[in-house]
Specification:
56 residues; mainly alpha; rod-shaped
């Protein structure tokens, strides 16, 4: 009896349709905003140093 149950489990294959519905992509809006803030900080730092160089 246990052999029949094991054979049924081996023959069952997960459906690709069900897997794609379960895997949802995470929202990356927080990461995008963080990257923008860091990018603005870097550009702002470069501009501040550049204008400091020009003023001397």
């Amino acid at each position: 009896m246990s052999l029949q149950v094991e054979e049924k489990k081996k023959n069952e294959q997960p459906s690709l349709v069900n897997e794609s519905k379960q895997e949802q992509e995470p929202k990356l809006s927080g990461a995008f905003i963080s990257v923008l803030i860091v990018g603005l900080f870097i550009v702002g730092s470069w501009l501040a140093i550049y204008f400091l160089f020009l003023s001397r």
